[in-house]
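Example 4.3 (complexes with small molecules)
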Amino acid sequence: MIQNNKPLYLYLHVPFCRTICSYCDFAHCVYQESLADQWLDALQKEIEYKEINPHLRTIYLGGGTPTSLSCRQLERLLKMLDPYRSETEEYTVEINPETLDDAKASLMASHGINRASVGFQTSNPELLKLMGRHHDLPMMHQTVERLHRCGIHNISLDLMYSLPGQTMADLAQSIQDALSLQPVHLSLYSLTIEPHTLFAKKDLHHLSDDAEADMYESIEKTLPQYGFHQYEISNFALGDHESIHNKAYWNYQDFYGISAGASGKEGWHRYDHTRILAEYLKDPLKTQDIPLSRKEAMFEMIMMGLRLKCGVSRKLFAETFQEEIMDVYGEKAEKLIDQGLLEADPLYLKASDRGYEILNTVLVDLM
Ligand code: SF4
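Answer. The structure with iron/sulfur cluster bound is encoded below.
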């Protein structure tokens, strides 16, 4: 059996942004006050219906841009979640600098938010303009100072690479500028151009596979020099600042997915909310359920777990499925171990350094 108990992790999607970035394919729409009020009414219905576990370990407010809400609306949202946070260790909010002020920052801290994930992306002004982002480095410094003043010290920055026209020097400068903000966690994602985005319409492209691989390699080499360790393909932390919430996904834990654009996993099924806000407002309880077979669930656990540097916990796999991982995947896993792409010790099955570089191929072979 997968876990019987209620999820300990909650993701809530705020589907509004003040402006739309040129590369973005997330579920979002441009903020309008009255629409956000209607969304909060619908959200309240969903939260009341769900009978959420009051012992949540993490809450993650993502988007969209949670801080695009007005102070009044943000307060309403945070109050809705107050009953579930008394034992919460990590309470994260995604932030775009231009939508945060002192009032919102102190409001968030007073409702238990203790971690911020800030959209930094790059410090190159031309690239930021091309991406449709409305911040610069001085604004980033103000944002981080504002968060610290309110007691939110656990700060992560999101960076992007393989941006159109980006050079290695641009990336190196962005990393240095990001480090000057003294974050304790960094996420670095390569650009993918999704259809229907402004980038796709303008026929803009990410860099070649080789250039992207060079950038990834330089990230992996640079960040450890500043004390960051890589714990997942795209994520680096100082000390014990690995994201508890994101590790729950990679360790295949159950989680609530709340609001339009969110997905969740509870027991033997996943569920997706509609990405269309008007549909969510009509029926916030409607989701599309995707039942998971035992085989699918096992494979998903491996697929997520191998993203972690430490790999898939053999104990967790056995507890979840009452079967040993090597009894299920032994023959294929042994072959990959012989090829130097996987490594197994008594606690974990993990990708080797070489296997990590070609993880998708390793997963296809395991299937
Ligand atoms: S702020 Fe984030 S969610 Fe909103 S459009 Fe930009 S990238 Fe997308």
